[in-house]
Amino acid sequence: MAETATKTLTLDEVRSLAKSVFLACGMNDHGSDVLANLVMMSERDGPRSHGLRMLPIYEQSFSSGYANPTPNPIITRLAPSVLRGDGDNGYFQIAAAQARDELIAMARENGIAAFACTNSHHLAALRFDTEPLAQAGLVALGVVNSLSMVVPQGGLRPVFGTNPMSFACPRDGAEPIVWDQASSVVALMDVKMAAAEGHDLPRAGGLDTTGEPSTDPNAILETRSLLPFGEHKGAAIALLVEVLGAALAGGTLSVDNESREAHGALNIKGGATLIAIDPSRFGNPAFGDYVTRIYAEIEGNGTARVPGDGRLSKRNDATEKGVAVSTELLAQLDQLRG
Ligand code: NDP
Questions:
Q1: pTM (predicted TM-score)
Q2: Among 104, 159, 259, 321, which is 20 to 30 Å from 136 by CA?
Q3: For the chain, how are helix, strand and coil distributed in percent, rounded to 5?
Q4: What are the chain's domains?
């Protein structure tokens, strides 16, 4: 594989670069801060497929009129534990940032609370939606449905999006446990990134044109048919995400991609839900000890590691040394910011 030329950027430089692209897209100061921070966090912690490489896709979503660069989300409390968001056709994270304090207060008041958002787009790793809730001492579950490209077990056509979910849990005296994963073997952006970088996937992630499982990213991009992880079990999780993500608040189902196609957009407008649980309201004062014990039983158990800890080691490394970005991508981003 040919070496790609790179330049090392500090995390502040990554954030400024992303912000300048978002401002050139017509976003305002607040919205561009929220999304630029998201891009920086993906470059810092991974998955880098959701970092700077996503900026052209964000730009296309705005310039095609598919997504609103200056949304005014409407957040409405429908019940003591239910918060509904209308993202005003902007990115979910802008609505979620607006709803966060109220969601946290509701969870603390009632033990559990949910924020379900419709009319919003999502292009990011879900861990950044749940992590702030765990940093506030809450257990969190996040889901977002996307656009159909995952075939249900035994099915003939894609029904589900890559439908990721994220789980975050506070830990006494340490960073929270935060994991997030797609319902597919591999996320579409990672297939694209493997194709761009000219290497195969580590394991079969989709079907080739003959309907056989394949590791070739170009063959998979041709069929746009990804495999669910864990066969029927992953497909069942994708179903759960479809219901909690789209059906609850009335987001677009993954199979209803027409609007996206009409705009030639590559991003995803589905629905997203965050559920926040206050463990201190569940009657077990030793909750933190339980989490510490679960963590300890995984760590040091053969080669097992706690999901999400990979992110923490990348975070430390990137904070110290910065991140290497392909010069080709940097040239493309320079053009985007005009
Ligand atoms: P991965 O398979 O790369 O990782 C899934 C989780 O497993 C991560 O939390 C990872 O954390 C953890 N993990 C990885 N290896 C191990 C290991 N050996 N032992 C224990 N834990 C491990 O993620 P996916 O490819 O499924 O998803 C990629 C990203 O794409 C996610 O961030 C997801 O949110 C995002 N996505 C977003 C979509 C959207 O619509 N916005 C759609 C689909 C995906 P770590 O490596 O940090 O330990």
A1: 0.94
A2: 321
A3: 45, 20, 35
A4: 73-184+228-309 (3.30.1370.60)
Judge whether 327 and 8 are in contact, CB under 8 Å.
no
164 lines ligand 1 (CB under 6 A): yes
Catalytic positions are 49-50, 190
* CA distances to 57, 164, 178, 180, 206 from 186, in Å: 19, 10, 18, 12, 8
Residue with the smallest CA separation from ligand 1 atom 21 is: 307
**Spatial contact of 99 and 75, defined as CB atoms under 8 Å apart:** yes
Determine which residue's CA is closest to atom 14 belonging to ligand 1. Answer: 307
d(CA 317, CA 43): 11
Each residue's pLDDT tens digit, 156-195: 788 999 999 999 999 999 999 999 999 999 988 889 889 9
| Ligand 1 atom with the shortest distance to the CA of 188 | 43
User: How many whole angstroms from its chain centre is CA 149?
Assistant: 16
Could you give the CA distance from residue 91 to residue 71 in angstroms, rounded to a whole number? 8
- Identity of residue 130: T
pLDDT (tens digit per residue) in 20-77 = 999 999 999 999 999 999 999 999 999 898 999 999 999 999 999 999 999 999 999 9
How far apart are the CA of 293 and the centre of ligand 1, in A?
Answer: 23
CB contact burial 123-145 (16+ within 10 A = b; e otherwise): bbbbbbbbbbbbebbbbbbbbbb
146 lines ligand 1 (CB under 6 A): yes
| CB of residue 179 inside a 6 A radius of ligand 1 | yes
CB of 190 shorter than 6 A to ligand 1: yes
